[in-house]
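Hi R.,

As promised on Friday, here is the backbone we talked about, encoded as structure tokens. Could you run it through your design pipeline when you get a chance and send me back a sequence?
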């Protein structure tokens, strides 16, 4: 089992920045990758970014590429999402997720086994 806890959400004006963190505990050594998804009110959960645990390969949704950066610190069992130039459409609950599935597909939520409870990000115009 893997437990995930997100932090760092909050209120920010458009153009501002936030850094989200995800702390993992439990059997973190079994994970293939970590990712971030988000869900806005009335909308389906969507992929944001992911990073593989060993190689550190990164993947981004087109709408956030160039603005967001995902990173991982395996020694601390943490994953971060640096969000720059935030836009109102980035407003959502952001969820940290972990996968131990093979094959793992970065953008597919169904291939992630563990989920945090989310942290709210609100971007005002």
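Update: got your reply. Pasting your designed sequence below so it's all in one thread:
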């Amino acid at each position: 089992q893997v437990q995930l806890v997100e932090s760092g959400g909050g209120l920010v004006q458009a153009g501002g920045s936030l850094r989200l963190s995800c702390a993992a505990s439990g059997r973190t050594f079994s994970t293939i990758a970590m990712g971030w998804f988000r869900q806005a009110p009335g909308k389906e959960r969507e992929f944001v970014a992911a990073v593989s645990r060993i190689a550190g390969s990164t993947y981004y949704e087109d709408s956030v590429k160039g603005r967001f950066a995902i990173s991982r610190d395996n020694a601390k069992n943490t994953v971060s999402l640096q969000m720059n130039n935030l836009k109102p459409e980035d407003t959502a609950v952001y969820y940290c997720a972990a996968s131990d599935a093979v094959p793992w597909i970065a953008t597919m939520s169904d291939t992630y086994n563990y989920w945090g409870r989310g942290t709210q990000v609100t971007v005002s115009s």
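One thing I noticed while checking it: The CA atoms of residues 50 and 59 lie 5 Å apart.

Thanks again,
M.
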